[in-house]
Amino acid sequence: MKEKCPVCGNEFDPEEMWLTSDYHGIPYRRVCSDCYSKVMEEGYDGQPYEYDYYY
Length: 55
Prior knowledge:
Elements: E1 3-4, E2 11-12, E3 17-21, E4 27-32, H1 33-39
Antiparallel strand pairs: 1-2, 3-4
Protein backbone atom coordinates (compact mmCIF):
# COMPACT_ATOMS: atom_id res chain seq x y z
CA MET A 1 0.00 0.00 0.00
CA LYS A 2 1.46 3.35 -1.03
CA GLU A 3 1.66 6.39 1.23
CA LYS A 4 1.59 10.01 0.10
CA CYS A 5 4.51 12.26 1.02
CA PRO A 6 3.07 15.28 2.91
CA VAL A 7 5.66 17.62 1.35
CA CYS A 8 5.71 16.80 -2.38
CA GLY A 9 2.48 14.78 -2.67
CA ASN A 10 4.02 11.83 -4.54
CA GLU A 11 3.21 8.27 -3.49
CA PHE A 12 5.85 5.87 -2.12
CA ASP A 13 6.06 2.58 -0.30
CA PRO A 14 6.34 3.27 3.46
CA GLU A 15 9.66 1.36 3.52
CA GLU A 16 11.13 3.96 1.14
CA MET A 17 10.19 6.89 3.36
CA TRP A 18 12.25 8.51 6.12
CA LEU A 19 11.02 9.52 9.57
CA THR A 20 11.67 13.14 10.50
CA SER A 21 11.95 14.40 14.07
CA ASP A 22 10.74 17.59 15.68
CA TYR A 23 12.72 20.18 17.65
CA HIS A 24 13.14 17.82 20.63
CA GLY A 25 13.96 14.69 18.61
CA ILE A 26 10.47 13.21 18.84
CA PRO A 27 9.40 11.35 15.65
CA TYR A 28 7.16 13.68 13.66
CA ARG A 29 6.21 12.42 10.17
CA ARG A 30 7.36 10.27 7.23
CA VAL A 31 8.58 11.97 4.09
CA CYS A 32 10.24 10.71 0.90
CA SER A 33 14.03 10.63 0.68
CA ASP A 34 14.06 13.60 -1.72
CA CYS A 35 12.12 15.81 0.70
CA TYR A 36 13.95 14.61 3.83
CA SER A 37 17.06 16.72 3.25
CA LYS A 38 14.95 19.83 2.55
CA VAL A 39 12.72 19.34 5.59
CA MET A 40 15.58 18.51 8.00
CA GLU A 41 17.84 21.33 6.74
CA GLU A 42 17.69 23.11 10.12
CA GLY A 43 18.18 19.85 12.02
CA TYR A 44 14.50 19.40 12.89
CA ASP A 45 11.10 19.32 11.23
CA GLY A 46 8.64 22.09 12.10
CA GLN A 47 8.93 25.06 14.44
CA PRO A 48 11.03 25.28 17.60
CA TYR A 49 8.93 25.14 20.74
CA GLU A 50 9.35 24.99 24.49
CA TYR A 51 7.36 23.12 27.08
CA ASP A 52 6.04 25.00 30.09
CA TYR A 53 6.14 22.72 33.10
CA TYR A 54 4.55 23.97 36.27
CA TYR A 55 4.80 21.85 39.40
